[in-house]
Structures are given as C-alpha cells and as structure tokens.
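Technical note accompanying the year-one report. For the benefit of new consortium partners, we illustrate the data format agreed upon in the data management plan: each record pairs a sequence with a structure-token string. No post-processing was applied to the example shown here.
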Amino acid sequence: MEHSIFIHILSMLVIAIVAIALLRRMGLPAILAYLLTGVVSGPSGFHWFTQLQMQSVAELGVVLLMFTLGLEFSVPRLWAMRRTVFGLGSAQMIVTALVAGGIAMLVGQNLVAAVVIGSAIALSSTAIVLKLLNEQNWLRRRHGELSVSVLLFQDLAVVPLLILMPLLANDGTQMSFNAIAWGLLTGILAFLGLMSFGKWILPRIFDEVARSRSNELFVLSTLVVALVTGAFTQWLGLSMALGAFIAGMLLGESQYRRQLEADIRPFRDLLMGLFFISIGMLLDFNLVMQYWWQVILILVSVVLAKAMIIYGLLKLVGENGKIALSTAISLAQVGEFSFVLLALAVNYQLLETEVSTVLVAVAVISMSIAPWLIRHSIDIAKKLTGGHKKPQNEPLEVNLPINDESDFVLILGYGRVGQTIARFLKTEAVPYIVMDLDPTRVTEARAAGENIYFGDACRMALLKKMGIRQASLVVVTFCEPRQSEECLAVARKLAPEVKILVRTRDDANLHELKEAGATQVIPESLEGSLMLVSQVLFKCGVPLTRIIKRLESERRNHYQYLHGFFSGTETDFTLDLLHAVSLANGASAVGKTVADIPWQTLDVELRAVRRRGEEMDPPPADWILRRNDILMLVGKPRSIEKAEEYLLQG
C-alpha cells in the first residue's frame, strides 16, 4: 500500500513537470499546469487519492500560501499608495461582490452562498497580473499603478474573508449580525495579540535561533511559528490560514526578512503548486461537461462585468478612457485566492459541489485567457476608445516647491548608493536634492535634515518641479533596469544638455542606457571588481600610471575582460540601519555627554549629531546633548529600537 502511494506521488510529480514545461512554451502560467495535474490525479482522472486526503492537502496549501503572502506584505508600499488602494480597491471589491452576489441570489442561491460567490468573483490574479505587467515594463505606467493598487487591497480583503468563512459555517442558512461582529472583533483582538507577540517575543526567539547559525533550525523555527499561530487562530474559531498570514506579516517586518525569503524561496513555488494541485483534484470533469454552457455563459459575464465595473469606477474619478479600459481588461480575470475561498467554502459546506466546480472551471479558463488580454490590453483600449485622446495630467504625490537653484546635483533614488553619494557631496559642500519613492526612508531622512522629497522620479511634472533643467548633474541610482531606463528617457527629454550618470548592477543594459541618453553608465559589480584588481596590481608592484591606464581602457572597451566566467550563487547580506532620533524636551539623554551613553551595551554606533542645521561628525566624548539635537544612530533594527527607547525614556 505504501509502495503504491509512493508511485502515485511520483507519477503526479512527473505529470506536473511535463504540464509546466508544455504550458510555459505556450506562454501560460504554471498555475494552470498544477490545476491540470490535479485534474488528472483526482476523481476525474486516475483517482489516486481519497477525498479526505485532498481536503488535508488543500488546507495545508492554503496555510502555506497565506504565510508566503504575509511574508511579502509591505506596509510602507501600502501606505505610499493608500489613496488608490483604499479608494479604488475598496470600491472595486464592494461593487463587484454586490453585483455578483445579487445575481447569485436571483438564480436561487442563499445569502451565505451569494457572499462566497461574490467575494470569489471580485478577486483578481495577483501572480499573473504582476508578472505580465513586469514583463511588459508597465508597472510604472498609470494603468500598472492602478492595477497594483487594486490587487493590494484585494490581498488585504482576503484577511476579513478568512475570518468570515468559519462564522458563516456556524449558521448555514441565516447570518447573525452579532455573531459576525463578535467574530470580526475576535479576529481583530487575535491580530493585535499576535502582533504584540511578534514585537516583543518573536524577535528574541529568532535572535537565539540566528546565533545558532543553522539554516535548518531557522527554516524549522519559521514553519513552527506559522503552524502555531495558525493553530491559535483555529482554536479561537477562526481560519488557520489567518494565523499563518499574521505569522508571515510578523516575520516579514522583522530584521530577518531577507534571510527568511532566501531560505523559503526554494519551497515557495512548490508549496503553492501543492495547493493548486489539490484544487484541481476537486474539479469534477463530468460536472464541467454537464454544465458546459453555464460555464461559458458565466465566464463571459464575469469578464465583461468586472471590466465594466472597473472602467466605470475609474471614469467616475476622472481617469483617461484608455488608461481606465486597459486597467479594467488587466483585472477582468478571477484570481488564485478565489480558489482559497472556494476550497474553504466546500470544506465548511457553504457551497454545493456543483456550484463550486462550475466556479473553479470559470476561474481556470479566465486565468488561461488572462495573459493574452493583459498583453493586448493597451491595443484593445486604443481601438475601443479611438486612441486620439491625450491622457490627462497625472496627479502628483506631493506638492514640491519649485526649485530655482542652479548648479546642484539631483539624486534620483536614496537607497544605499544614493545615500553614499549624498554623504560625499555633503563633505565637499556640493549642493544636492534627492527624490525617493519610499515613504519610510523619506521620513527618516527628512527628520535627519536631508534635502529629500517624496515622489516618482519617472514623472515628468515632478522632475520639472525639482528643477532638473538647472541641475549640473543628475545621478540615477535605481537598481531596477526598467525603472532606470524610463527615468532616463524622461530626464533626457526635459534636460537635453544635462549630464546624467546611471548606476546599474552590471552592464547587461549598458548599450541601451547609452543610446537612451546616459552620459556615463557605472556598473556597480564591475567597478568593484576593477577597484579590487587595481589594489592587487599595486601590491604586486605594477606602476600606478599603468594601472590607471589599464582601468580606463577597460571602461572604454565596455569591460571586455570582466565577462565569460562561471556563475555562482549570489549571497544577500542584511545591512545595518541608519536611524535619526530627535531629543525632545524631557528626553532622558538631554544634559548627558556622549561618553555617558552606554553605546556598546546598546549595540549601536553614534554616527553624527545635528544641531541647528550643523552636523558634528563624529561628536567628541565630552559633547553635551541638548534639546532638539538629532542623533544619527547605526545598528541592527532591534538594537536601534532599544537605543531610541533608552535615549528618550531612560
């Protein structure tokens, strides 16, 4: 028996490999290959597994899928796009769910089933849309930004839906408002409790795990935390997937996020595939063939209705017709989290098997045609809208003061490279202005007195307000090639004579950037190699003039000696955090000298102190700290948090 199960699992994996290879050649997503594998392995195919085994696999897949979503969830990104996320996103979800749920009730479904159906149809595929928008270089375009905003809210909306599912199961025909309100309150309290646990206890646990320097222990601890939090929320009468999502959020906000992503990445796609295989097993092909005309009718209705609703909402807020229509076409499909809701609805007996099977078939087909629709969304929008209207001016994120200075450096992007350039410019008293799209980083830098503004460097109106035409030099520091190319094109159009330096990780896009107008392209990894080579040659006795000549020759010849190597795995290192602490009136550190603060115990470094616009770098040991001093601290996030608490509260 055990040998037979092993053969079945092995056969299922072989089918998955073949299906993925074939569908990828056809340009279709891997999700469809997993669903097809489930169909072949389930009751409609060879019937290798029982219904109980399918449900167990499906539940585990949901838990792991929600955990990976929580790990990748970005609060700063959500806050940066809050207007469109909570405005457009909530409107799309509510209107679509009401329309779909209302139609479901008209055709004979009860209120509970209508809620499930409306919620499932309102969701779109985050994985497919983001992947294709990125491939088409459309993420920075207006319709790409709108699509991402809606998808972000849909991912958030999954959380209350996970809370709602077990509550609906408690009363199959009538929904008690008090029960739902109590369940939502329980979910919020559980969320707050787990967040407190994640802030005060979880970091200490992972500090100890990290000190062991064992990857196996790190991954195992992560999975245990996910399952324990899932069991806790299930004990409260909520969904286990909700606990896994919160666990992923807690770990995603910690200093170990990069390490967790690196460790879990090899398993992530496989675990998601496991869930979609289980969904495919629940798809009964006999029922699909029996209700084939209903499947086609519902498919056409869903795609058209979702597109019309999104288009109408965008036109209502004044968006250009072409942008509104291309956004609507991109989001017209049913998403992967619809499978999550349908699987839970079947497990909780909220939906009949026939209804669930029809909806799963609709979702599968809609996701199959989604790649073609997204790739041709702009062309379709141009044909339907006439293609002659000029897009309206896009709203600016911030009100930037018009810059009338001249002979300054404009730094676009304030990550590690941008901050390093700014520090050296400050040392040489060269004026500079910075633009960055990370709200947390901008807030931190402005608190430290940096001349930085929040905004998208690819927006023409924003660059014009920043005074790009008066700049003596523009430095583009983005690590994303597509973003650099788009920013470079806009900057060159506005300021044809300005010098533009572009930083890249390597020289893969060197020729394209040069043709787009870059004065000089600096490949980071290759320049680092040249600096190391220069040191090696100098230590070996090669004359300095010969070394400089050799390096310049390499740059002119586009780094020809720095290609054709054996590739290896790149290591991702976690960097220290730079944080500004302002000493308010009554802060514990006011009146103390720098030497009085136990910096070594706090495990942070005092980089500089800014007072009345002047910076002391580094301050002497007898420097007395005063009210309104801004302290620049360097250290790990956890240490920075403890140091700030000590400086302010003692």
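Partners are asked to follow this layout when depositing records. Residues 388-404, 564-575 have pLDDT under 50 and may be disordered.
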